User: What shape does this take?
Amino acid sequence: MKRIIALLAVWAVFIGCEPVERDFVNPDVTIFVQNSQGENLLDSEVDGNLLGSDIYAEYNDDIYRITMTRDSGPARWQGLRIEPYNVYANDYTPVLRFGEFKTSSIDEIRGETFIIHWGDGTSDEVKFDLYVKGRKNVVQRIWLNGKLASDNSLVVRIVKE
Assistant: This one.
């Protein structure tokens, strides 16, 4: 009888425990860069595009210049690169990506900041949060130059004049 009660107690503990789903991918910050007419300044066919500019990111006292390739294999730091927005949805719009920032189920990224320099003497500060609040609520917020740009993703749109 004691064994049955012990087994029921163990079973009740396992049934009562809801798994916490906090599996993160190592995130990138995605940056759309447009002119005031809404044209993508990372598109080689747009007049006045930024592709020949000396664009780089400044992060943790390091400089990251644009690369056009991504390292394959396990998630690792990728730096600053130009990539299609979402090849899985057949959206090949070129965007800047910066990361991959290391996260795990217990990490919290709050106030992580980097600066994009555009090669023309101007720059933009990007700051973001990524963490889990409670059991399942993933918080993703991004600021551009001190103003909240999104409170539900790590995507930001920058308009260059």
About this structure: Residues 24 and 104 are 6 Å apart (CA to CA). The beta strands are 28-34, 56-59, 62-67, 79-86, 91-99, 109-117, 123-133, 137-144, 147-150, 155-159.
